[in-house]
Amino acid sequence: MPLPMARPVKIKDSPNRQFRQRIPRDVLTKARGQTVTVEIDGRQVSFRIGPTADVVKFSLRTSDPTLARSINPERVLALKAQGMGASEIAKALNIGRASVYRALAE
């Protein structure tokens, strides 16, 4: 079951939506220059966080707002397996703690 994500941003001059999330200050210096891989619609998409970046942003490759707002519960489970708590997962994915608990209960 997909879970709701923070409101995706519409990309200027494009029908597609964009994920955009500020990088927390305590990890900002470690995140810059790193390559991040996310799964979008069953495909692995990699992007690099630039040396001056303060946000993570990438295209969700869909113009459907409902589809763009859904997240995969496997992401929640992967973060839980890394030892993160429900509050940390909720902050990382920009969702409510209740959504995290729902994903973990499935």
Describe this structure in words.
The model has no long low-confidence stretch (mean pLDDT 79). By secondary structure, this protein is α+β, with helices and mostly antiparallel strands. It has one domain (3-105): Arc Repressor Mutant, subunit A (Orthogonal Bundle), CATH 1.10.10. The strands form three sheets. A three-stranded antiparallel β-sheet has the order 2-3-6, with no helix packed on it. Helix 4 (86-93) crosses helix 5 (97-105). It has five helices and seven strands.
What is the domain total for the residues?
A: 1
Strand content: 25-35%
What is the overall shape? globular
Q: Regarding CATH, which class? A: Mainly Alpha
What would CATH call the architecture? Answer: Orthogonal Bundle
CATH H-level superfamily: Homeodomain-like
Helix-strand topology string: EEEHEEEHEHHH
Strand order of the largest sheet: 2-3-6
- Radius of gyration over C-alpha positions, nearest whole angstrom: 14 Å
Q: Spans with pLDDT under 50 lasting ≥5 residues?
A: none
Helix-residue proportion: 25-40%
What is the makeup of the main sheet? 3 strands, antiparallel
Q: What's the pLDDT, averaged over the residues?
A: 79
How many DSSP H or I helices? 5
End-to-end Cα distance, whole Å, is 9 Å
Q: CATH topology, anyone?
A: Arc Repressor Mutant, subunit A
Number of strands: 7
Q: Helix- and strand-based class? A: alpha+beta
